[in-house]
Amino acid sequence: MKTLLILNDARYGSERTYNGARLAGSLARQPEAEVRVFLIGDVAAAAHAKQKVPAGFYNLELMLGAVVRHRGVIGVCGSCMDARGIAAEDLVEGSHRSSLDELTQWTTWADKVLVF
User: Which strand ranges, in their side-by-side order, compose the sheet holding 95-98?
Assistant: First the structure.
C-alpha cells in the first residue's frame, strides 16, 4: 500500500505532528508499505538536523530518521523552508527540499493520503 502523510502542524506543542510521525514510522516498518511524508508549514522545522529537546521528550529528527531507515521518503516544502531560514544542508539525513509540484505528484501516487 502506498501512503502519503501530510504533516502541517507545529513540530512541538501539539500531538498531531507527533502522532503523524509515529504512524509514518509504524507504516514504514510494514514489509509491503511504501511511505512518503510531506512536511508543510510550521512542521518544516521538524526536519531540521541536530535538534535538542528536553530529556524524556520525543525528538522528531529521530522519528523521521526511523521512517527513512525503513525506505520511507521525506519531502520538506521549499517555500516553507525559505520562510524559516532552513537550508537544504540543515535537513535530517534522507529528507529533501521539495515543492508543491512534488506534493501533487505524491498525492496522485498514493492509495491513501492522511493529513495531520
Answer: 95-98, 73-77, 34-39, 2-7, 112-115
